Amino acid sequence: MNQIYTSETINDMPQRYRANFINSLSGYKSANLIGTCNGSRHTNLAIVTSVFHVGANPPLMGMLMRPHTVTRDTLENIKEQGYFTINAVPVNLYAQAHQTSARYTPEQSEFDHCGFTSHWQDDFAAPFVAESPMAIGLRLETIQKIEANQTELVIGRIERVLLREQAVEEDGTIDISQLSLACVSGLDTYHQASGIAKMAYAKPDKAPTALKLFNTDQ
Amino acid sequence: MNQIYTSETINDMPQRYRANFINSLSGYKSANLIGTCNGSRHTNLAIVTSVFHVGANPPLMGMLMRPHTVTRDTLENIKEQGYFTINAVPVNLYAQAHQTSARYTPEQSEFDHCGFTSHWQDDFAAPFVAESPMAIGLRLETIQKIEANQTELVIGRIERVLLREQAVEEDGTIDISQLSLACVSGLDTYHQASGIAKMAYAKPDKAPTALKLFNTDQ
């Protein structure tokens, strides 16, 4: 290892520098746009990189939100309406997706200002992003305070999934490499990904085995 | 959209199929090996894809763990010792990293059986993975139960960061594209990533602007 950072080094970092450094440590994250609306169906859209899997049965997803940042409107809409959407960002729209992190006024919808189209599904109470190849509709399950730093963990139950491509494999896995999704590192760096391999269930007495190798030259 | 999945469709999926499907919805995730030991310094290593950023000040990272899966030893070691490491998986070692998900007995260390080298830092009470280009040493801060499905959210405070490359930018961001890290989707599919752009802080009255464009042909 070439560089070692101790608690002291980290504590001594200027605030913004430390935010960039620490945010980079979690590696590649999925880029998602959170779609919400208020009681008048006025829409809001915010990029969030803290979405994660919580459980498959019941089907739950979570995201961590800081109450005093730009996602405040998102959090208020979710609390008020009880519904939200998680829309995976396609690679070709990463710049517009990043633009939703600007501090627009509550009267301005990021859908209009950042070039996204709201898509309403008849009875579902939050807007989907029409441009997203993988969009999820969720009903709020709980909001739990993280004791360690008072951020809020929003957990939603998956009620609807919209997929653009026939990307579901025989075993239920979605081959997201077909969907050209962006991923993010740190606060502002966007990446594209390409598949390497789908691995077999690992067993102690068996060497690691690929079920499928992707063509990495594609 | 070509395919719509409703709550009913999802509920009707066979258990394993649903696990694969729901696990795919969170998109690209970072691939990390969690290094722990027991009181006799007997080591354990487990791949985890639920690591996420919790906060920069104090510097906190979290991961979600299911008590009854293969990561049970990891969780017990963390509770017992109060320390663990998060080691980013390099692309060339994705197959070995996946192999740590096999159900080895508590007497077998995944370091030995999957081909990783434990690296001890003098006074730090958990083993790092020598092969990882970005390794983080954490002290257990809290374990919080997720009410919605009784999984456990482990939150650690970052006490040490080991970086192989001089990859830290002027603003503190770690250019992880220099580290050749793997990412994961679903339960078993590995990907590599390549940088697109680092974006400027977004403002409502400014078009999205790249601070840096990566060479995508590299």
UniProtKB/TrEMBL annotation, chains A, B:
Similarity comment: family membership: Belongs to the flavoredoxin family.
Protein's organism: Marisediminitalea aggregata
Gene Ontology MF: a single term: FMN binding
Domain Flavin reductase like: 28-169
The protein's name: NADH-FMN oxidoreductase RutF, flavin reductase (DIM6/NTAB) family
Cofactor: FMN
Membrane-spanning ranges: none
Keywords per UniProt: Flavoprotein, FMN
InterPro entries registered for this protein in UniProt: Flavin_Rdtase-like_dom, Split_barrel_FMN-bd
